[in-house]
Amino acid sequence: MKSARTESLRTDIADRAGPSKGYAGVVGMAGIASAACVVLLLLAIGPWLLTGRSIEEFGTVDRLYHSVATRMARGLVPYRDFELEYPVGCLPQLFLPILAGTSVRVYRLAYVAEMLVINALLLLALTWHVDRREGRLEARRRLIWYLVSFLFLGRLIISRIDVVTALLMYVAALSWAARKPILWGSLAALGGLVKIVPALIVLPASLGELARPRSTRLVGTITFAVCSAVGVSFWYLLGHSGMVSAIRFHAERVLEIESVYAGLLMLLGRLGGEPFGVQWGHGSYEVVSSLSPAILAASRYIQLALLGISLIPLARSGSDRGLQCCGALTLAFIVTAPVLSPQYLVWVLPLILSVGGSLGRRVRPLYVLACALTFLIYPVFFYRSLVPARLPGILLLNARNLLLIGLWLLMCFGTTGPDGGERRGGNRDYITMESRPVGVPGVPAVDHPRLLGLKWLGLAQKVGSRS
Predict the structure, then answer these.
(1) Facing residues of 284 across strands?
(2) Stretch 385-393: mean pLDDT, rounded?
(3) How far apart are CA 402 and CA 438, in angstroms?
(4) CB-based contact 261:295 (threshold 8 Å)
(5) Which of 130, 305, 313, 414 could be cross-linked to 325 through a Cys-Cys bond (beta carbons 3.0 to 4.6 Å apart)?
(6) Residue 110 falls within a domain, yes or no?
(7) For residue 205, what are the CA distances in angstroms to 201, 239, 267, 454?
(8) Phi/psi at 288 (nearest 5 deg)?
(9) Smallest Cα–Cα separation from 28: which of 131, 116, 104?
């Protein structure tokens, strides 16, 4: 009896003690979670498959993605021979599924399989990070949170390009936290050529390098600039007029119906009598009102202001403040952009789940609730309560947007608490930007990230001499 109890205690301690040895445990957990995502996906789309009804989310894959891949397979050059609204970094993932077959059905299945592979890689990166930082038990809990989020976002993950954006942005953020400048610079540039949001990492990362130019030599910033220049040059060579048209397409977009501004405009129209209309344009439904031009112009300045405020986590101590800052930047971009599509929530998924401590325990339930409301908005009630715009759908939309704003406030101003991100036996050998030891215990060195702001004021040397 005693030996059995001792062995059980040893097993429990080993399970809680921290990171798994090697990569076998990480790969196993990520593999099981990936298989669970497939099961959840089949449960989500099973009724449509059995009844033969069309799935709303797959319309983009069948009509747009398949059309682009088919024309590329025939030898036509994107941007030169036909217009394409997506940046050049999207071309590989749109083209690869056509190699499995040219029919719409085969292409759709191949595209879903491709996105599931990307989803598995994202799970692997998330599991590896949490396992190394906080231990195996906490990694399992984060995977459960991921599966709950996938339950609401899974149909968008497999039918849009945004999970690739999320993966590139997340791995770039991890590389920045681990002080691998060449890797984060190249991944941020590559992600920016898929969608602009991964390039947001450059804001805090370059700020850190500029604060310590002698030690960093601006390697990450230079790598990002070179890789971006190469990518844009390739895009320009493919079709310079098509590249300009693609950029103009997004620059000319107005208030998309799910954006924060559109939700407030529709609420004002229903409760205050301000006239507005909903029309189709730029590949989505847009809200048009007499206030739209002024709001659209002000949104640029609001976005810049919130992106600047989102750098606040860098000034604090804490184990996950690098990823917290990236999450705050992404949420600031989402809530202030004139366009807010439901798949944008995929961008911030791994960043939210990577935050530890008391802050992580607060933001994860709110994020899952935002995902659930997003699922109700699109596709459940989109064509019944939002197009045409009715008060229940408008209230639901504003509730979701209010949750996103609350998430941004928490990610921007919240703290992880005294236990940080290493509450349950994280690996102390996993050195990141947040956990790198300094010269004197308890006293930050001159180049420590907590003193980046002071260095800009010319005070870092004084503080360093005192320490």
Answers:
(1) 281
(2) 93
(3) 40
(4) yes
(5) 313
(6) yes
(7) 6, 32, 39, 17
(8) -115, 130
(9) 131
Domain limits for position 86: 23-160
- Its sign, for the CA torsion 152, 348, 247, 157, is negative
Helices 181-192 and 202-211: angle between axes, nearest 10 degrees = 150
* Average pLDDT for the chain: 86
Angle formed at CA 37 by CA 36 and CA 43, multiple of 5 degrees? 90
| Residue whose C-alpha is closest to residue 54's, from 65, 62, 43, 66 | 62
Of residues 179, 154, 45, 185, the one with CA closest to residue 375: 154
Helix (H) or strand (E) holding 112: helix 104-134
Which residue pairs from 52-60 have beta carbons closer than 8 angstroms and sit at least 24 positions apart in sequence?
55/155, 55/159, 56/379, 56/382, 57/155, 57/156, 57/159, 57/160, 57/379, 58/108, 58/159, 60/159, 60/160
Q: Which amino acid is it at 286?
A: E
- Show which of 252, 275, 293 is a domain's final residue: 252
Instruction: Give the C-alpha distances (Å, rounded to integers) separating 269 from 35, 144, 153, 382.
Output: 46, 40, 30, 18
User: Cα(303)–Cα(200) distance, rounded to whole angstroms?
Assistant: 12
Q: How confident is the model at residue 361 (pLDDT cuts 50, 70, 90)?
A: very high
Other Cβ atoms less than 10 A from the Cβ of 152: the count is 21
Q: What angle is formed at CA 203 by the lines to CA 201 and CA 207, rounded to 5 degrees?
A: 120
pLDDT at 315: 78
Task: Name the domain count of the chain.
Answer: 3
Q: Rounded CA gap, 326 and 191, in Å?
A: 14
Q: Which two tokens stand for residue 225?
A: 């600039």
pLDDT value of position 432:
47
Residues in the chain: 467
Phi, psi of 2 (to 5 degrees): -65, -40
Same domain, 205 and 328: no
Is 4 part of a structural domain of the chain?
no
Rounded Cα gap, residues 92 and 79, in angstroms: 14
User: What is the pLDDT at residue 310?
Assistant: 95
